[in-house]
Prior knowledge:
Elements: E1 4-7, H1 13-24, E2 28-33, H2 38-49, E3 54-58, H3 64-78, E4 83-86, H4 101-129, E5 132-137, H5 141-144, H6 150-170, E6 175-182, H7 188-191, H8 195-204, H9 213-224, E7 235-238
Parallel strand pairs: 1-2, 1-4, 2-3, 4-5, 5-6, 6-7
Bound molecules: nicotinamide-adenine-dinucleotide.
The site of nicotinamide-adenine-dinucleotide has 27 residues, from helix 1, helix 4 and helix 7.
Amino acid sequence: xxxxxxxxxxTRGIGKxxxxxxxxxxxxxxxxxxxxxxELKNTKQEIEQTGAKCLSLQGDxxxxxxxxxxxxxxxxxxxxxxxxxxxxxxxKDTLLMRMKKEDFEDVINVNLVGTFNMTKNVIPYxxxxxxxxxxxxxxxxxxxxxxxxxxxxxxxAGIIGFTKSLAKExxxxxxxxxxxxxxxxxxxxxxxxxxxxxxxxxxxxxxxRMGKAQDxxxxxxxxxxxxxxxxxxxxxxxxxxxxx
Length: 244
Ligand code: NAD
């Protein structure tokens, strides 16, 4: 029986690459998206071209009821969920002096509460199977902090605390929970930065370049696989040595 991987916010960027990489590794896939668009169609097509099945589920991860419905829909179709990747995330960067209450709440609600919402609704099925892998996408700024990202850094630090606590709770059920902290990865999220700023950032990274979505997807593939079966509660940095 094929293994099932479910990735949130997977129509583009890192989530898309994770979905394609796991499809190539032999999983059947479920992806979550917020809005139906060309990106979704292309991603679904690329996943199916690998020979994998791809179930696509509309929903906002910050909405608990959406997450409950999505988890049920995946079980109806595939009967189990082996791997959950909490990838959906947003930024609303600005200095705290200018940050509106909504800027803080929105980022926490999608990144951190969204991770809780989806995990809470998926984990009962993993418990039943006595097997599961949960991989939460955090960020290096959740560890280091970053000016202009108090909301985002708080959400990503929260994900790390959530990951470690849950790893302790469910280890005895053979459910492994880890987090990945990417550094600067080339996606739409970092495309908003000016070229000069990207070059300045690259100079501060020991590997002297930004990372690719594939660099993150490779680590997800490892954490989902049998090769990582003695690793839980960890934060794996995929950042070219940016933070050490
Ligand atoms: P992206 O903006 O390209 O992708 C984010 C995805 O999340 C999009 O598909 C978006 O539609 C989806 N999404 C946003 N809000 C959602 C919601 N409420 N419900 C469901 N889906 C939602 O960004 P990315 O760079 O691919 O980021 C993916 C993850 O990696 C995010 O959690 C981000 O914080 C993290 N990350 C990215 C970088 C980077 O440099 N790009 C660095 C560290 C961490």
